[in-house]
Design a protein that fits this description.
Blueprint (H helix, E strand, L loop, with lengths): L6 H16 L6 H8 L3 H8 L2 H8 L3 H12 L5 H11 L1 H14 L5 H20 L3 H25 L8 H16 L1
């Protein structure tokens, strides 16, 4: 079995693939180790736990980048930019979103997901909206609306929403925009 400095990358790639394909509960440390061609002890040494490895590999950098870029533009067009960014982020985001959704009730995962949601989505938008209690509620509503779109498209598979991208960006953008208004 390999034990090179590249082990961490191989483990992370194997874990990400298995978590997306099988889900958190059905993926074992042994499965990850076998796919990465390392001993299971190496997985734990490098990442600490299956939970920590899951959370690290299930971060959608693509979605986080899109969210940051959306925050940078004018607030009066935020909703449409947000809807467009969500729809355009499908490359790795769908598998990650669904894996996170399926694992959200696993011990230790739900609380970490709430922390990540707060740090990556709610807090930056709250700051952009000017802070305070009203901004906090508006940021939470916008983040919930954004997550709702992904849920409808990817968990439920509502194909009618996926038919006309431009119409969806306009209409759902208005929903998100109303949340921050």
């Amino acid at each position: 079995m390999a034990r090179s400095p590249a082990d961490s990358d191989a483990i992370a790639r194997a874990a990400a693939r298995l978590f997306v394909d099988r889900g958190y509960a059905a993926t074992t440390v042994r499965d990850i180790a076998a796919a990465a061609d390392v001993d299971p002890a190496v997985v734990i040494r490098r990442f600490g736990s299956k939970e920590a490895l899951f959370l690290r590999t299930m971060e959608s950098e693509e979605l986080a980048r899109a969210w940051r870029a959306t925050l940078d533009g004018p607030l009066d067009t935020f909703g449409e930019r947000c809807a467009a960014a969500l729809l355009d982020s499908r490359q790795d985001t769908q598998g990650v979103f669904l894996a996170l959704l399926r694992a959200s009730d696993a011990e230790g995962i739900g609380s970490r997901l709430r922390d990540a949601h707060e740090e990556r989505f709610v807090a930056p938008l709250r700051e952009r909206l000017g802070g305070g209690d009203a901004a906090d509620l508006r940021a939470r509503l916008a983040a919930a609306a954004a997550g709702g779109l992904l849920y409808a498209l990817w968990a439920v598979g509502d194909e009618a929403l996926d038919a006309d991208r431009d119409a969806l960006v306009r209409c759902y953008g208005a929903v998100i925009q109303a949340a921050i208004a």
